[in-house]
Amino acid sequence: MAKEQQPHWSDILKRRLANPKKDERSDEEKKAEETELFTKYYTEWKGGKDKDKSYKNIPRFYYRLPAEDEILLQKLREESRAVFLQRKSRELLDNEELQNLWFLLDKHQVPPVSGEEAMISYEAYLQVGERAGPKCKKFFTARVYAKLLHNDPYGRISIMQFFNYVMRKVWLHQTRIGLSLYDVAGQGYLRESDLENYILELIPTLPQLDGLEKSFYSFYVCTAVRKFFFFLDPLRTGKIKIQDILACSFLDDLLELRDEELSKESQESNWFSAPSALRVYGQYLNLDKDHNGMLSKEELSRYGTATLTSVFLDRVFQEYLTYDGEMDYKTYLDFVLALENRKEPAALQYIFKLLDMENQGYLNVFSLNYFFRAIQEQMKLHGQEPVSFQDVKDEIFDMVKPKDPYKITLQDLVNSCQGDTVTSILIDLNGFWTYENREVLVANDNDNSNTADLDDT
């Protein structure tokens, strides 16, 4: 029996079009059906109840910080972070493991010795890596070897340089973990109070600070913390990144005080040393003539060589935090850090803000003239012939070489590497005198050195 042939789809379509069914539904019913279909298909497209909602499989990556009143959640967060940091600390090489690494490196040194340094080849380096244990694995890579490879004709690296590299990495991780324990928010930065706690608990571990009286601890901590925040928090946000603390040299200077035999010169040049902290605090007490714990403008005018202009000091008290027109110790520390480090961008930023009276973002001829007039007045008081502003102005613009020949920006000052000289000329009579007589001073220095040479012979 022949198979019955199925009608073609085009024939079916033609028959349906020829005999259309009349839709007797009202407009409201049609609109309701349209809405229902739209909702159905939209829900399916978005995932639907019975569909696999793949977006729900994405792991959660944001957890809000506990509020101040959520004590239990805060404690849980602190404990979990402490456990995490302890685990990270256990992953670091301890003293015994570092000693073992040194013995292995020394055992695998490859002759000949370069100068006085023992060397190791790449093959021996990989052998040490296999025997040193899992904690050392990350140090024995081609990248690290290439980083330490210099001009050795045999393609070797210095064992001492490699070991110092490992020691430095371990120290950085240890220090980061130590700082992170004080990071209450767990956001990778320290607030002022966090850093104060860190340094306060660090004091007993620094032999060079053994002589400090406990009554001075709070002043010492304030002195130390201000240096970190003055240079690492230029926008005055009240917090600094732990990464920035590790990247700068300040922590090295602070931890240098572990050396029991630190020279007197090193102590005097180290802001964090006991003699340095006592010097700064002693200056503050000497300036405070009325012994009220604060400095007035008149008291501050005796700072250093007592040659800062009154116009500059007026601006200090206008721009920076004071209490009833007087300066506290913390504000004084910023003032000292700025004037003792005038080559540094952060210090120039501090002084530039004072010189830029109208907050324009640049210094023009009017600004320079306004401050230099005070220098001219001081010269008259000391019986000196005032120097022409026109000459000084030309010299300043020649030194700075600003992009705009009529305006000096902060960046111009920083780029010129003459910012310390320019600011000294404008705010300090002694600084201006030193600049004016620089050639005579250099000649005198040369004469003195020649005399010393003759005495030696």
Defining traits:
two-stranded antiparallel ribbon, Recoverin, domain 1, mainly alpha, 457 residues, 23 helices, 2% strand, extended
How would you describe this protein?
It is a single chain. The chain is built from 23 helices and 4 strands. With 457 residues, the protein is mainly alpha-helical. The protein has 3 domains: 70-182, Orthogonal Bundle (Recoverin, domain 1); 187-277, Orthogonal Bundle (Recoverin, domain 1), CATH 1.10.238.220; 288-442, EF-hand (Recoverin, domain 1, Orthogonal Bundle). The strands form 2 sheets. The protein has a two-stranded antiparallel ribbon. Helix 16 (329-340) crosses helix 17 (345-355). It is extended. 19% of the residues are buried. The mean pLDDT is 89.
Compact summary:
This protein is mainly alpha-helical. It has helices at residues 9-18, 27-46, 71-90, 95-107, 122-131, 142-148, 159-180, 192-202, 217-232, 242-247, 250-255, 264-269, 274-287, 297-300, 310-319, 329-340, 345-355, 365-381, 389-400, 410-416, 419-427, 429-436, 438-456, and strands at residues 119-120, 157-158, 189-191, 239-241. It has 3 domains: 70-182, Recoverin, domain 1 (Orthogonal Bundle); 187-277, Recoverin, domain 1; 288-442, Orthogonal Bundle (Recoverin, domain 1), CATH 1.10.238.10.
Spans of at least 5 consecutive residues whose pLDDT stays below 50 are: none
CATH topology category name of the largest domain: Recoverin, domain 1
Strand order of the largest sheet: 1-2
Count of discrete alpha- or pi-helical segments spanning 4 or more residues: 23
Residue-averaged pLDDT? 89
Q: Kindly provide the name of the CATH class of the largest domain.
A: Mainly Alpha
What is the CATH architecture term of the largest domain?
Orthogonal Bundle
Taken from the alpha-carbon principal axes, the silhouette is: extended
Q: How many strand elements? A: 4
Our Rg estimate from Cα atoms comes to 36 Å
